Amino acid sequence: MTAPLFSHSNRPSIEVTGEGTVSAAPNKAIIVLGVITESPSLSTAQSENASAVTNVINALLRLNIPREQIQTVTYRIEIQYNYEDGTQIFRGYQVTHLLQITIDRVEQTGLVVDTAVNSGANFVSSIRFTIANSEIYYNQALSTAIQNAGNKANTIARTLGATLVRTPVKITEETRFIEPPIPFQASLLTEGAAIPTPIQPGELEIRAVVRAQYTFFDRSFPSY
Burial of 145 by CB count in 10 Å (0-12 exposed, 13-18 middle, 19+ buried)? Predict the structure, then answer.
């Protein structure tokens, strides 16, 4: 996004980059988990998988998670083989059914994972945290980035013994980035653990970067 405000081609200019960062606690968790079953019989693998997934969904519903916030994101059937002396030997079928669960109470993330595992889930793909109203925080970061650019330009002008024209002739939005906390690693999940799975959402970092061009004047140029 470029916003040229005015131009003074006869004035020297300074081009700087400004950065702004805002930290915010996430208010939404997105969990992907599910059930993987294997059997020499495809119908058995499908049946066992469907039964386990139904148990998981019913358990999540009992946590008052709305049904529309529980969605299937992966369903696949794969043939499994063993290899002996370079020979491919049929082993059976693997059925994978993964659910995406979106919750607004991030403090319940560990409870959701434990409930799903205790109800039959045997695979946790990912847990990530996000923020629903990120635009509000991004605008704060953007404002800070613009101020940062102005401060840098002013420092350069003062060092040169010049006077900065405070209104930039051009501002370009360079980067919009939301850095999430480190995702939860599924390998840390201990099935049947005696204590709740501890999952800390941390904070999100919302960052904005702008490039701004300012003009300045010294004794060689008349002031306004």
Answer: buried
pLDDT digits (tens, 9 = 90+) for 140-182: 999 999 999 999 999 999 998 898 998 999 999 887 776 655 4
Span 13-25+133-187+199-217 CATH architecture: 2-Layer Sandwich (3.30)
- Do 103 and 28 meet the contact criterion of CB atoms below 8 Å apart? yes
Both tokens of residue 34?
Answer: 């599910």
- Write 164-167 long-range contacts (CB < 8 A, 24+): 164/14, 164/214, 164/215, 164/216, 165/8, 165/11, 165/214, 165/215, 165/216, 165/217, 165/224, 166/214, 167/5, 167/6
Q: Among the residues of 63-191, which ranges form H helices?
A: 109-118, 134-159
**Helix extents (H) in 37-196:** 42-62, 109-118, 134-159
Predicted TM-score (pTM) of the model is: 0.71
Report the C-alpha gap between 186 and 201 in whole angstroms.
15
Q: Do the domains spanning 13-25+133-187+199-217 and 28-130 agree at the CATH topology level? A: no
